[in-house]
């Protein structure tokens, strides 16, 4: 749900502000796919790399594209992680005993 909302927001900003902001769409998808409920940086290495690249592009090359890459990656990762944290199923020892249909668990 988070990437859809962020995608709609990016499209609306692109239509009202600048069409270069559409470059945020693939980075929103990247951030939401690579997010984890515990904000694990190992899983999010491509997102962190794209944030650094976005800041570099914004500083030395072309500001609108760099800002779109930075905000798309960061927002996709943060919102995707928050969404996955809300949706995560807590797995307890009792659930493990109930799921052990073959009787070979600990």
Summarize the structure.
By secondary structure, the protein is an all-alpha fold.
What does this structure look like?
- This protein has 5 helices and no strands.
- The protein is mainly alpha-helical and 106 residues long.
- Helix 3 (45-60) runs antiparallel to helix 4.
- The longest helix is centred in the last third of the chain and has 25 residues, at 63-87.
What labels would you give this structure?
5 helices, 106 residues, elongated
User: Pairing-aware structural class of the strands and helices?
Assistant: mainly alpha
| Structural shape | elongated
- How many strand segments? 0
Mean pLDDT, to the nearest integer, reads 85
What value does the Rg take, in angstroms?
Answer: 18 Å
Figure out the total of helices. Answer: 5
Characterize the biggest β-sheet: none
Instruction: Provide the low-confidence segments as ranges.
Output: none
H/E element sequence:
HHHHH
Give the proportion of residues in helices: 55-70%
How many angstroms does the end-to-end distance come to? 37 Å
> Which percent band covers the strand fraction?
under 5%
Task: Detail the topology: elements first, then pairings.
Layout (H helix, E strand, L loop, with lengths): L1 H15 L7 H10 L11 H16 L2 H25 L5 H7 L7
């Amino acid at each position: 749900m988070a990437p859809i909302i962020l995608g709609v927001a990016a499209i609306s900003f692109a239509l009202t502000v600048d069409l270069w902001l559409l470059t945020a769409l693939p980075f929103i998808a990247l951030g939401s796919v690579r997010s984890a409920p515990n904000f694990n940086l190992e899983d999010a290495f491509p997102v962190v790399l794209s944030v650094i690249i976005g800041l570099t592009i914004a500083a030395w090359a072309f500001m609108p594209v760099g800002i779109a890459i930075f905000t798309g990656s960061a927002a996709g990762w943060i919102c995707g992680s928050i969404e996955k944290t809300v949706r995560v199923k807590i797995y307890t020892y009792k659930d493990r005993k109930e799921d052990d249909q073959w009787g070979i668990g600990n």
